[in-house]
Design brief:
Elements (H helix, E strand, L loop, with lengths): L8 E6 L13 H4 L2 E9 L11 E5 L4 E3 L2 E5 L3 E3 L1
Antiparallel strand pairs: 1-2, 1-5, 2-3, 3-6, 4-5
Length: 79
């Protein structure tokens, strides 16, 4: 399935797992910190990031779409 973000939305793939395998599971609050992600597609109104960028994203605003996540451009904390 091909996902094309609309407006100011960005399709990303998180680069690290929120809970490492074989270690203690962190509490939910600790998992809500910023996460590194790779930009896979951008909406037509997005101006700050381009496909292929590595960004820090607020993971609370992410909506899961299969293995990827949709986030608004305002959720990008740094490039």
């Amino acid at each position: 399935m091909k996902v094309i973000p609309l407006g100011r939305m960005i399709l990303v793939r998180f680069l690290e797992s929120p809970t490492p395998h074989g270690k203690v599971i962190r509490p939910r609050l600790e998992q809500t910190q910023a996460r590194r992600a790779e930009v896979l597609a951008v909406g037509f109104e997005v101006q700050e990031v381009v496909v292929g960028d590595c960004v820090l994203v607020n993971s609370l605003t992410a909506t899961a779409v299969g293995k990827h996540h949709l986030v608004p451009e305002s959720a990008v904390l740094a490039t």
